[in-house]
Amino acid sequence: MAREYNIKDYRNFGIMAHIDAGKTTTTERVLYYTGKSHKIGEVHDGAATMDWMEQEQERGITITSAATTTFWADRNGKTHRFNIIDTPGHVDFTIEVERSLRVLDGA
């Protein structure tokens, strides 16, 4: 069976930075502007899509890396597949970031 999208149109992104840099906030905006979500989830409200664990929602920090896929059509109408990994920023969860680096095209 053929792929629905050509593999050359796939991009694997990792959002990585120090704690409170806005990684999850950036990811939430990407999901909203590509139409994956209909509301921008706010980290401080515990409503971020990517922070799925109860402890993440309560503490307002990312503990585990979370992956999602969204699609974006360019000006010519060509659709691109974006695989996004939102990673933790706290030094205690560095292993989550290291695992994510192995599968990314860009970070």
Automatic annotation (TrEMBL):
InterPro entries: G_TR_CS (IPR031157), P-loop_NTPase (IPR027417), Small_GTP-bd (IPR005225), T_Tr_GTP-bd_dom (IPR000795). Residues 8-107 form the Tr-type G domain. GO terms for molecular function: GTP binding; GTPase activity; translation elongation factor activity. GO terms for biological process: ribosome disassembly. The keyword Transferase does not apply. The keyword Cell division does not apply. Keywords: Elongation factor, GTP-binding, Nucleotide-binding, Protein biosynthesis. PANTHER family: RIBOSOME-RELEASING FACTOR 2, MITOCHONDRIAL, TRANSLATION ELONGATION FACTOR G-RELATED. This is Translation elongation factor G.
